[in-house]
Every structure is written in structure tokens, then in C-alpha cells.
Amino acid sequence: MSRSDSPAAADPGSMHDPDPLAHVDPNKTLDMEATGSVLEDPGQILNIDAVIVPGTETHTTTIRNQPSSRFELRTEVGRGGMGEVHSCADIHLGRDVVAKILHEKYCRRPEVIARFREEIRITGQLEHPGVVPVYEAGVMPDGRPFFVMQRVWGLTLRKTLDERPNPGEGRSRMLKVFEQICHTIAYAHTQRIIHRDLNPSNIMVGLFGQVKVMDWGLAKSLDEGNRTRVITLLGELDTADPDGSDPGDSGVHTQVGSIMGTPAYMPPEQAKGEIDHLDERCDVFGLGAILCEILTGQPPYVAPTAKRTLQLAIQSNPEDAFSRLDNCHADHDLVSLAKACLAPDPAHRPRDAGVVMDRLTHYFDMVLRQAEWDLGRFFDLSLDLFCIAGFDGRFRRVNENFSRVLGYSMAELTADPFIVFVHPDDRDRTAAMMARLREALPVRDFRNRYLDHNGKYRWFEWTAKSIPKDDVIFAVAREVTKEVALEERLKELEAWAAAHG
């Protein structure tokens, strides 16, 4: 492997630096052990000298030889505290994938290698649509472990949130993204895995709506002890310059040590370095922090530097975040859920992501019921004939005015295709209007005749719009039988007048 001409980043975790946080971008995850070097050798083949195989119940790691040249290494597309991410070509299957490779300078750091392999093991074992699948894992010729995984085309939630003109814009879509994040973390919690670094930069929103929770590098199995050596930084924080040194640092990127995670989204117990006491509720706090930003436009802790952001997390005063939540004009149940997740005391938070998911599902169900009730009220109070239909040619829902005008029950109106009620002479024109709606073209002032319960035909004038991808048509009609009769009578009089000069 060859390096690019770009210089390697300075290691902010050096113990010779009197203030390790002073030069850290607070928007990144705290990683006091690893920052990363530059690796770029497009076109190299990943010769897999050894494949990492998940271990037994004790989670030991075994190695077996399996030479391969399946993946062609291309350009670097990202990097984290421990690894570099490169685009790759899967030569066998002809698809784009990505490879995450341990930074070169850590190839002789057993504790970092162990942590990287733990990321591979955990990511590979979490078989869920919200976690990228691992296709292969192994060791580079220079001894660095790597793993190959699915490439997700899309944007990070970080970028998506930043592009909103205001927090209210696209809120319902962001809540759907949040719902999928909760599903994924709820699954991880059932597997006794905690992520420990939930933040918008670690969430990918795919081009087709898929949502992936990324970067399980700080993840931990609650069924085993913490095997990663960490560096305690609390002493340095206590004596460091309280003003910080980099006004561009705001604490929203990942950093690792005994203090590990992303300060702006970090629960107080994690900010204090109490890693042995972390459980599912640290992720619950992270979920609440993401929800807080979705609703208010900002994470719970906002400060100009990483150090100050971390200090806010340690002090665990949520008043500013709670005030912003109270004034964000979101539904009370969402605000209440965010506040519960952000409780400083873990005992006062929901027990795990499954509980958060249940509360969110209850909220969505409540909103749906309210929308159905409002629609029902709108249907019932309108003097026009409202209906929802499908492209199968059947009414799905009609208001009471249909029964009032035509004399059929609701069950009769929805039992058969509506073309049954249309006058035979009007059926071809009605079918032509349906074809327009299938093309998402609106229909206005279309008239046809419907048979009523007494065997008489009544004229309706329709306005309709459709959403073809949802197989739904919304239509409103008014009865114009008397108008049509008057129009026909007027034509007769005009014709008589023309004939008699």
C-alpha cells in the first residue's frame, strides 16, 4: 500500500499534548487513541491472506487461510478514528462495495486491532435491514485487518438535517427516518449490543428510503467485559483552559478514550468516562438527542468547542434542550418522548430502544387515528359527494351523501366495481378518465350518469386527482341532474327558435 502526498493527521491523543481536546473538532466522535493516516492505492487487489471467522459463545476469534483476489481497491471515500473506507469493485459479482481498513499506523497496536476486529464481529452478527451486511473480512498483506460491506448510496442524516431551511421543514419524513433508526437499535438491544455513538453522522439515508445505522466501532456486547484499553482524560479536562482554543470545534464528531462518543449527543455517564456502567440507556439518550435535533434543529448540548460541549454533557443540565423542545411546536407526545430519553439519570429514561419504539409507534397510531377521524368529519360534513377509490375500479370509501343521493347502503356501493352503476353509454368515457388518472393527470368537470336505487339515472360532475404509486384516487362529485335537464331544455328552445326564424 502506498500513501498519498497528504500529510498524516496529528494524533490529538498524544499524552504530550497538555490539552488533548483543544484541537479536536467537536463535531466529530472523540477518539483519543486513533485519528488516522492517508491511504490511497486505487486499483490494488485485496489479497485476503486470512479471513476472520466469528468465534464461539466466548467470542474468541479464529483465523483461517483463504487466498482471494475478489475485491479491487479504489479511492478513499471516508475515514474514522480507527479505519479508512475505500470504494471497491466486487469482481466476482460485478457490484460496488466498500472496504474499511485499519489505519496503517495501528497495525502494531494489539488493543486497537482487537477493537477493530470487535467492530467486524458485531457488524457481521447484526443481521438486520438497518445494518450494512458484511460480505467478507480478512487481513491485508501488511497485517492490517479489513472488512468489506455493502455500499449505501445516499446522504448522512447529518447532511440531510443541515440542508433543511428550518426544523419544521420535512419533519414528518425525518420522523420516519427516526422510526427506522429506533427499529435497528431495538434489534441490537435484543442481541445485547449497544452502539455507544448514535448521532446523525452515523446514520445513512439511502436514495430509496433505506436507513442504515453505521459505524459500530464503539459498539459493545453487554454479555462480555470491555476488552479495549482506554485513556483517561478527566484529569486533563479538569485542569485545561476552560475557554478552549478552537472556535470551530462544537463537539458533534466522534472521539474515543475512556471518554468516547460524540459530546453533543453523549449521556452524562458516558461523558464522565463511566464506561463500565453503560447499558442500553446510553443509546436511548442518543436516540433522544437525534430526536431533539430533528425537532429543534440542534442537539442537546451546543457550545463553540468540543471541550465546552463535553463539559455540558458532564454537567448533564438539560434545561436549554428542554426549553428548545417546549418551543419547537411539535406534538406534545414527541416532546415528552425526547425529554424522557434525555433524562440525566439513566434510571429515568426508557429501559431500551424497544420501549422508545413502542412509544413512537403509539404516537404514529394516534396521529393516524386522528387523521382518519378528521377525514371522516370532513366527509360527513361536506355537502358534496366525496370518495376514495382504487385503480381496481372500486370505491374504498364514500361519504353519506352517496347513500343520500343514490339510495344505496355503504356496503352496496363498495361491494361491486363502480362501473356497474355507470350508464352503459358513459362507460367508455369513464374508462378513458381512469386512464388519465393512471398517468397522474387530473380530471375536471367530467360528467357521467349513475343509476340510483329507484332505477333512474342521475348526472354527476367529477373532479379527481390520483397518486398512482399509492394506487389511490381522490374524487369529489356534485349532482347536476337538474342543471343538465335545464341545459338540454335550453338547447331545445334555441333549436326551435332557430328553426322558426
TrEMBL record:
Q: Where is the composition biased (Basic and acidic residues)?
A: 14-27
Q: Where is the Protein kinase domain?
A: 71-365
Q: Which GO terms describe its molecular function?
A: ATP binding; protein serine/threonine kinase activity
Q: Where does ATP bind?
A: K100
Q: Which PROSITE patterns match?
A: PAS, PROTEIN_KINASE_ATP, PROTEIN_KINASE_DOM
Keywords for this protein: ATP-binding, Kinase, Nucleotide-binding, Serine/threonine-protein kinase, Transferase
Which residues does the annotated region (Disordered) include?
A: 1-27
InterPro entries from the entry?
Kinase-like_dom_sf (IPR011009), PAS (IPR000014), PAS-like_dom_sf (IPR035965), PAS_fold_3 (IPR013655), Prot_kinase_dom (IPR000719), Protein_kinase_ATP_BS (IPR017441)
Q: Which residues form the PAS domain?
A: 392-444
Against Gene3D superfamilies, the record matches this protein to: PAS domain (3.30.450.20), Phosphorylase Kinase, domain 1 (3.30.200.20), Transferase(Phosphotransferase) domain 1 (1.10.510.10)
Q: Could you tell me what this protein is called?
A: Serine/threonine protein kinase
